[in-house]
Design a protein that fits this description.
Layout lengths: L5 E2 L2 E2 L3 H50 L25 E6 L2 E4 L22 E6 L5 E8 L5 E7 L1 H52 L14 H43 L9 H26 L5 E3 L1 H14 L6 E5 L5 E3 L2 H18 L3 E9 L2 E8 L6 H7 L13 H14 L3 E6 L5 E8 L1
Parallel strand pairs: 9-11
Antiparallel strand pairs: 1-2, 3-4, 3-7, 5-6, 6-7, 8-10, 11-12, 12-14, 13-14
Helix pairs in contact: 1-2, 3-4, 4-8, 5-6, 6-8
Enzyme class: transferase
EC number: 2.7.13.3
Organism: Methylobacterium variabile
Amino acid sequence: MTGPNQTGLGQIGSLRRRLLVGVLALIVAALVVAGLAIGLILARFVRGQIDGRLDAQIVSLVSGLESGPRLRLARDLDAPPFDRPGSGWFWQVRRGNAVLRSASLGERLLAVPALPGGDDDRPRPADGTGPRGEPLILRVLTLPDGTVVAASAPRAALNGPLREAGLALAASLVVLGLVLAGAGLVQVRLGLRPLDRLRQELEAVRAGRRERVPEPQPAEVRPLAAEINALLDQNAAQLAQARTHVANLAHGLKTPLATLSLALSEPGRDPDGRLSHLVASLDRGLRHHLRRARSAALAGATRMRTTLAGPVADLAGALERLHAEKGVRVTCAIPPGLAVACDPQDLDEMLGNLIDNACTWCTGAVRVAADAIGSDVVIAIEDDGPGLGPEALAAVAQRGRRLDETVPGHGFGLAITTELAELYGGGLELDRSEMGGLRARLRLPG
């Protein structure tokens, strides 16, 4: 069974990583091909230079041969480097048993393969070995009278420059590869920046800081932004429709209950109050489930941001007056500008339940504080009452359980608060307060 980030072919990786791997693979492949191509070009160039020098020596030898039966040169052609013994730069002219050779060859002979003469009177390439077995590059010309003129260069004259050029080329390609890799990284980041901006704008929409995604986007991202805005519009329309249905349902049910409650309040209609208590329970349950339906509709919609300082101060003042007989004091420590992504009515409902619970159970002091933790806001409501033990806290964690059945509606409000917080992606935690009583920590998205 695959998760949301997997397919049948395996886990979907990062788009940035895939692009970078692709760019780096192309850069490496291009540099390898370029290195091989440049190496071949350099080898042909250096070999051409050597062949040209040997061909020039052969031409000089042919032009310096004296006419006549004897094999003899009209002038000395042992110019450097053909005058250095054992240098590998040799020349040799052979006609039958007569041999002329360079000073670098000394008394030794150069093993020259027999090559037929061509029609173009140009020297032909050949590979050979020197008197000491060293590899040589040969150029051989066979004249019409059977005279074989050969000139050679040591293969080190080709391999040495190629090795030096290859090292310099490799270093240059490595530097070029690093530069191209850096440029590719920058290009990938710049190319994906519109997607990062779109993600941030979607986060702003989800947090309630923005209602729509701006549609002025790059051409490739613009259709996606338009589709997202269309989805937001559709959700808003569905939310409005759901709110209308909930309002109609509330009106349709609350009116008969109000009529029934009014009828039961007449003298003699409900002597023991059981029916009135039942109607009140039905009214509370109706309000609870209608509130859940409205909040569930809000959970899928674009959320608005609500600042905390004002609602907390208003609720604190109202509940101090409500519990004036106990002399309750509610202190608030809310940073200015701190806001949550929550509907104001739902925020009032959750905070009202928690602060009212604290005022009900406290000895005389209630403290409300809030702080931003990561992307969430945690609101702590504490009191100096008797608090709860571990078993009681575990019991309250169960949905619908009340803190004390003798105190009307106390635990029911906690159940409502927990459900509302979870609809917004938050939660409610209960533990022991440093003040001695209960601490309720309400977590909501910031």
